[in-house]
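Backbone-to-sequence.
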């Protein structure tokens, strides 16, 4: 069957299709299976007619084995990271159910924004992972501050603002195929440099963090907070729309607005 298949390929070349490219050709040899990358070209005679067939094959067996080994390693790493993330989510939920819920809703929105923007699956997966623990640094903040029902003092707010740095410190040594630590570190940075903790600007902020920043703000404003009721989804969308391109990434804002206004996206628990 395989021989007939490639014979037909040869006929195609000789009948006028001058070049064929076979990315993976599996053949059996005395030493076992080999994987070849083969190209075949028809050579023309003086009349311009195909008369000879030139074939060139490159042995890519080891490269393919290395690629498969890398794929398996990355898959194992993804599973390990996912397990670690779930443990972190559970730890946050046990201490502060509000923060845990906020993170999951923000992660779901961030993933939807990234998908709408057409980002590669790998980046979308990283955004979802980081989004579900983006406030992991709040574990270092006294719970009475996190759940305080009245307005925070300046000192208390300064402690809250440390959570991005603390989250980075928790995650920086976690081996992962995604830049989880940097996403968490940068999710409060703003396009005009007015954010924290490092006052990064524009493209110095990785795209994953720019997307998460939009999702984080929308979810926080649209949901109940310990010290105030929900400000409403319309207010949240107006906030990002009015500050598009200055505080928030333009593409992320446009995608977010489209999700809610044209595609019926809803935050969990939204009526």
């Amino acid at each position: 069957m395989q021989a007939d298949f490639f014979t037909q390929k040869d006929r195609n070349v000789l009948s006028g299709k001058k070049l064929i490219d076979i990315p993976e050709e599996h053949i059996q040899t005395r030493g076992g299976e080999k994987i070849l990358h083969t190209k075949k070209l028809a050579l023309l005679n003086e009349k311009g007619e195909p008369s000879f067939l030139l074939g060139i094959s490159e042995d890519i067996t080891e490269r393919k084995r290395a690629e498969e080994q890398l794929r398996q390693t990355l898959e194992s790493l993804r599973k390990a990271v996912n397990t670690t993330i779930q443990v972190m989510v559970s730890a946050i939920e046990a201490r502060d159910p509000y923060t845990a819920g906020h993170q999951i809703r923000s992660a779901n929105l961030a993933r939807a924004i990234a998908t709408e923007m057409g980002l590669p699956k790998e980046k979308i997966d990283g955004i979802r992972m980081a989004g579900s623990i983006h406030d992991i640094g709040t574990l270092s903040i006294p719970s009475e501050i996190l759940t305080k029902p009245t307005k925070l003092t300046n000192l208390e707010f300064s402690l809250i603002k440390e959570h991005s740095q603390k989250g980075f410190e928790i995650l920086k040594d976690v081996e992962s195929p995604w830049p989880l630590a940097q996403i968490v570190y940068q999710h409060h940075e703003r396009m005009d440099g007015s954010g924290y903790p490092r006052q990064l600007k524009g493209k110095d902020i990785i795209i994953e963090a720019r997307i998460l920043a939009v999702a984080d703000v929308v979810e926080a404003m649209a949901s109940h907070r310990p010290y105030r009721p929900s400000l409403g989804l319309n207010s949240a969308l107006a906030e990002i729309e009015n500050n598009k391109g200055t505080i928030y990434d333009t593409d992320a804002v446009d995608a977010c607005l489209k999700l809610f206004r044209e595609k019926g996206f809803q935050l969990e628990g939204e009526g």
